[in-house]
Amino acid sequence: MWEAKSGYLPGESPLDDKWRVAMGCEAGAGSPTTHPLVTKALVYVGTWDGRLLVLDRATGRQCAAYNLGAGVASALSVSGDRIFVLTDDGTVHVLAARRD
User: Fold this and answer.
1) Which helix (H) or strand (E) segment is 42 a member of?
2) Are residues 83 and 97 in contact, defined by beta-carbon separation less than 8 angstroms?
3) Measured between alpha carbons, how far is 13 from 64 in angstroms, rounded to an integer?
4) Structural contact between residues 83 and 38, judged by C-beta atoms closer than 8 angstroms
5) Tens-of-pLDDT digits for all 100 residues of the chain?
6) Dihedral sign, CA of 6, 7, 11, 17?
7) DSSP secondary structure letter of residue 33
8) Which of 43, 53, 75, 91 maximizes the CB count within 10 A of its CB?
9) In what order do the strands lie in the sheet with 42-46?
């Protein structure tokens, strides 16, 4: 039905690191992501470069993106109207779920 690329934050792509490129890195255009968390209207995806993306479930259009400051380290969780995200710096982020 649709697909959405996650991209990279500026300066976070492996291709932005001359040493990785010299070692033969051929990363694609998108940051690797965690398993999506799907709700009735939205899809939440954490990225290895430290973002939480919010996509429209019907179209795949990105509704919002939040920079968490460190790579998302595990699957996302939801409880009530809260989204829980663990990042690889040991921080648990809690965000209010969107009502869209």
Assistant:
1) strand 42-46
2) yes
3) 20
4) no
5) 887 777 666 666 656 666 666 666 655 556 667 788 999 999 999 988 788 999 999 999 999 999 998 888 888 999 988 999 999 899 999 998 766 5
6) positive
7) B
8) 53
9) 37-38, 42-46, 51-56, 62-67
CB of 88 within 8 A of CB of 71? Answer: yes
- Chain segment 73-86, per-residue pLDDT in tens: 888 999 988 999 99
Name residue 79's amino acid: S
* DSSP helix/strand/coil, 98: coil
Residue with tokens 């009530």: 80
- Cβ partners under 8 Å of residue 19, min gap 6: none
Q: Which residues contact 97 (CB under 8 A, 6 or more apart)?
A: 39, 42, 78, 81, 82, 83
* Residue from 30, 33, 39 nearest 5 by CA: 30
